[in-house]
Amino acid sequence: MIWKKKLTFVFLASLLLLSVMSVMAVANGIVVDNSKETGSSLTSFDANDIVTKEKDTSVLEMNTTTMGTTITWSNWYFSDQDRDGLNDTVDVSYDLSFNTTTSLNVSFLVNVYFLNGTLVDSLTFFLTASGGYAYHWFQWRAPYSADYWFKVFIYVNGKLDVTDEAYWYGADAFTPAPLYSSWWFSDQDYDGLNDTVSAGLDLYFLGINGSLNVQVFVDIFLYDQSYGNWLFYTQLYYNFTVFDLHYYHWFEWHAPVSGDYWFNVTVLADGTFHADDAMTWYGADAFIPPPFTSDWYYHDDDYDGINDSVTGDYEIYVNASLPANVSIIVDLYFWNAGWQYNTTFWTDLTSSWEYAYWSFYWQAPSPGDYLFNVTIYVDGSFRGSESVYFYGADKYEPPLIYSSWNATDLNGNGLTDTIEANFDVYFSSNLTEDVTVWVDVYYHDANNTILWYYSALSFNETIVNGNLSFLLIWSAPFVANFTFDVYISFPDGRMLWLDLFTWQTQESYYTVNVSYYWNAFDQDGDGYNDTLSVTIDIISNSSQTLYLQLYVDIYYWNATIGNMTYYDTLFFNVTISGGYDSITFQWHPPFAGDFGFELTLNVNATILWSDYFIWYGANPYSPMYTIDYMNYFWDLLDSDFDGLNDTFIADYEIQVSPRNDLPVSFIVDIYYQQPGVNASWNRVDSLNFSFTAFNGLIFQNISWQAPFNGTYRFDIVVFSNGYLIYNQSLTWANVFSPKIPNSWYQLYSWKEDQDQDNYFDTAVIAVDLHGSNIRTTVDVLAIVTVTDIQYNNKVDSFNVTLHFTFLGLPDEIVQQRITWHAPYSGDFNINVQFIALSSGTLTVSKDFAFFALNGFQGGLPPTTTTTVPPSNNTTTSIGDNQTNSTTTLPPAPTTVLTPGFTTTSLMFLLSLGIVASILRQRQKHVASRV
Fold first, then answer.
1. What pLDDT is attached to residue 255?
2. Distance between CA atoms of 60 and 37, rounded to whole angstroms?
3. Beta partners for residue 440, in sequence order
4. What is the DSSP letter of 19?
């Protein structure tokens, strides 16, 4: 009985080993059996079968089929692609081998089931095997959180040859992630190899409320073949604001050198980690663009059917981090029994971008063949040249343009008020074409120094057999010096300029008939009239469009001095189109009394009509409050000390009755007016101050800086409990946006331990930019130079653009940071120069000393095993409140060869073999006893 005990012990030990291995496989999420071929399923054997087949060793061998198909290697890899911490995607790859090298048609059928046998999905793939080998990869995402059973059927030349199956336990449903990325490659230097990567990032923000400041960091690593690891190469940085749940961001990058690159993308939303992504680009080719590209076009400018002019468009590769000087020289030759030099012309331009652009236009002075030799220099260095031929050029014969301008007195009072112009245009061909005549009208200011746009006229005409004749009649809307720019446009978009004429009118031709009516009524329901409504009807003596300005000067009866005193002015733009227009407005008195209204209708500076009326016994529109007294002060300041006003300030003190504590809303709507008479007011900002006024006494200070040059209007209203207390409108002209003064910069520096080894290894320079009530983005170029203090040699240098976005808040501070890792232990000096990109001027230059920095050993916690960049890496990080995220660098490519069975199936086979061997020994023992 001893052998029985031994047999039982070994058998139980084998089963225990098998159970442990099975549990370990299940714990990893999947059980794979890829050694089963048709007719030899492992589950068809048991111990008794093995006893009866003592010499059958097929269980321990790789069975082959008719085609000798064998799964030489398979891999099932799980990943969390919706980034919720649970695996939701499986990537499957198969290596197949055949006992023949002839071409074979191979197809895969993959059925995915729930464990109860319900079919979930079915996938079909087709491929061709040649040379005795085939490889196939596919990906599948779990639509539900469940356990799955995969059955793989491999057909060769239409016959089922191999089956495989696997189980995936604990799969998580794939749900949309906060970031989807698409990467594609292109050959942009046209040498047949991909040198440029483009990426599209689909960003999703759940539960967004208002706006989000989003920062995208793209760390780029280059694989070092010598040391077999990834070296940090550069960083791309993007900063923008989103207002929606979904935002698409795109960027492009050229490989500067050939090699393998790894991209790590980190997205921050309002300074906190939001999403990340990674991509490896193997075999990138260096981007070596052509020195320039050009496109030449030929035109028939005189419409005689033969080309007489040429345009050359140039795109010159500069790749300048600082402005580059580009010179283009064109030597012109003509053919006269040989190429003879004619003339040289050139242009100089400056470019701060990756490419410089230049367009060249030339008209042939006589018929013939021409040669253009173009030479290009960048910063004084030869960049390239080319020769362009213009064969069979026709002489450019411009149309003959005759014009006569005559000032007339249309209204018959002896003063010129209307201009008449006759045009006759003769083309060199019998051209017949419908064209549009355009007349842009401008006027000079009183000093004849500034030219303002007034309006544009257009009407249709026809060129008949090469002749065009038309009459222009235009009446002056006001007294001024007018300029007329006349040209025609053809249906294909080409323009032909005809004339430029200036005329000083003696008076305005326009007369207007104005009628108006006004009434006062009780709007707040207290029995007293508190609202004035005025309607003005205007009839012009011409159908020509007229742009008018209506001024309403308001006065109140001052009993102290016994006379009317000026109080405020209302302003309205009025457009008379078709000879008639009407305007209506309402106004509430700020306090009780008698008010006078002077209405003035102007055309530019010319008064066309005016009138005056008085409203007696006006009552303030304020059921709850009346103004006892009001003091206010406002002024314009030069905050950046450049001699130009850029800041509006105002102080208000208002006492209202009843004198109790009341909630107050002080609202300032700010409007901007485009230059010109016909410009409309567009609101660009709104300030809202809410507070409690004690004892009915309201105090408010206002400070606001203009975002750009122009003219502004401030509409100020004060409310309490829904009732209007006070309103006012102020206009501010000749304003200039402030420049960023040096005093706005505040710089800080400190050291950090970013590789978490308890030693400072990273230098951080924080840049604070201060602003107040400014809505703008300031771009500053930071030029960073790092020097070893002990040896006085340059260790590193790089440039980075800092984006400071101001939201218009009072006393706002925006911070950006520059981070640098020490490549080795030592003392370092970091010099930073800040250049305002808007002006290209140096604003601040400062040195920062960092002593006793330890060599940076990588950015991951000690518990994470990772191939980190070596100590000579330099990284630059920019942004507010950055959150470090754990990053796993991609390993170097390795090849793993696995037999046609997994570790689990191998142990199962070994255990069966052990049991079979013991049973054989038992048979022999029993036979010997018999």
1. 93
2. 13
3. 456, 485
4. H
pLDDT for the residue numbered 887: 32
Smallest Cα–Cα separation from 713: which of 666, 664, 674, 665? 674
- Show the tokens assigned to 10: 């070994």
Assigned token pair, 329: 């020289």
Q: Write out pLDDT tens, residues 556-573.
A: 998 888 889 998 888 888
Backbone φ, ψ for residue 910 (5° rounding): -60, -40
| Cβ partners under 8 Å of residue 598, min gap 6 | 551, 552, 553, 555, 610, 611, 612
pLDDT exceeds 90 at position 634: no
845, 832 Cβ separation under 8 angstroms: yes
Count other C-beta atoms under 10 Å from residue 773's C-beta: 22
What does the buried/exposed string (b/e) look like for 789-807 if buried means 16 or more CB atoms within 10 Å of the residue's CB? eeeeeebbebebebbbbbe
What's 142's DSSP letter?
-
Which of 26-40, 310-324, 434-448 is predicted with the least confidence, judged by mean pLDDT?
26-40
Mean pLDDT of 217-227: 89
Q: How far is residue 526's CA from residue 879's CA, in Å, rounded to a whole number?
A: 58
Distance CA 503, CA 485 (A): 12
Cβ proximity of 264 and 218 under 8 Å: yes
Residue 136 has pLDDT above 50, yes or no: yes
Dist CA 338 CA 181 (whole Å): 59
pLDDT (0 to 100) of residue 216: 93
Greatest Cα pair distance, the chain, in angstroms, is 150
- Phi, psi of 119, rounded to the nearest 5 degrees: -70, 130
Q: How far apart are CA 80 and CA 177, in angstroms?
A: 10
Burial of 532 (0-12, 13-18, 19+ CB in 10 A): buried
Among candidate residues 478, 485, 494, 467, the one with its CA nearest the CA of residue 421: 485
**H/E segment holding residue 7:** helix 2-27
Mean pLDDT over residues 716-736, rounded? 83
The four Cα atoms 910, 916, 919, 920 give a dihedral, to 10 degrees, of: -120
What is the rounded distance in angstroms from the CA atom of residue 198 to the CA atom of residue 236? 13
pLDDT on residue 181 = 85
Q: Does this model's pTM top 0.90? A: no
The continuous run of DSSP H or E covering 211 comes out as: none
Closest CA to 703 of 763, 750, 633: 633
Tokens of residue 636, six digits: 């314009």
Q: Work out the pLDDT band at 615, boundaries 50, 70, 90.
A: very high
CA–CA separation, 827 and 760 (whole Å)? 12
Question: Which secondary structure element, helix H or strand E, spans residue 884, and what is its range?
Answer: none
Q: What is the pLDDT of residues 376-389, one digit of tens each?
A: 998 888 888 999 99
- Asked if pLDDT for residue 869 goes beyond 50, the answer is no
Tokens of 779: 């771009």
> pLDDT above 70 covers what percent of the chain?
79
Q: Which residue type occupies 244?
A: D
Cα–Cα dist 784/288, whole Å: 26
CA–CA distance, 136 with 162 (Å, rounded to integer): 14
Q: What is the pLDDT of residue 192?
A: 86
Residues 626 and 656 sit within 8 Å (Cβ to Cβ) = yes
Q: Identify the weakest region by mean pLDDT among 26-40, 158-172, 300-314, 321-335.
A: 26-40
Element (H, E) at 79: strand 70-79
pLDDT at 555 > cutoff 90: yes
Partners of 277 in beta bridges: 265
Radius of gyration, CA atoms only, the chain: 42
Say if residues 29 and 78 touch (Cβ distance below 8 Å): yes
- The pLDDT of residue 886 is above 70: no
Beta strands in 427-494 (DSSP E): 433-444, 451-463, 467-475, 481-489
Evaluate the CA torsion angle 344, 350, 356, 360 in order and state its sign. negative
Residue 99, H or E segment: none
One-letter identity of residue 456: A
Residue 871 has pLDDT above 50, yes or no: no
